[in-house]
Design brief:
single chain; 102 residues; mainly beta; 7 strands
């Protein structure tokens, strides 16, 4: 079986419509942040968050769905200064048997 580009587009759109916000642990306080931008880069779904209003050590990041359930999360280790900072989740979609002539 071969996966068609149409199926990939549907999967990406379904993922994007399910993602609601990011949650970051900044100086020990959970902060919810709205999505700044999303894009598809080949087989990667990129979800971007602009951290502007907060300052401090960022030790955890999570991507939440419409029901506030964590989809992706993990530890981070950086210090957010007063300047804005773009945090990016890159979610790869790996497909085997992709059709080449669509």
């Amino acid at each position: 079986m071969q996966v068609r580009e149409r199926l990939l587009n549907i999967l990406y759109q379904a993922l994007l419509s399910s993602v609601k916000k990011g949650r970051f642990l900044i100086d020990g306080t959970e902060r919810d942040v709205d999505i700044y931008r999303t894009e598809r880069l080949g087989s990667i779904l990129r979800v971007m968050f602009y951290l502007d209003d907060y300052r401090g050590a960022v030790t955890h990041a999570a991507l939440l769905d419409n029901d506030n359930v964590i989809l992706v999360d993990g530890p981070t280790n950086f210090y957010k200064e007063n300047d804005g900072f773009m945090y990016v989740f890159d979610i790869p979609i790996i497909v085997e048997g992709m059709a080449t002539n669509e």
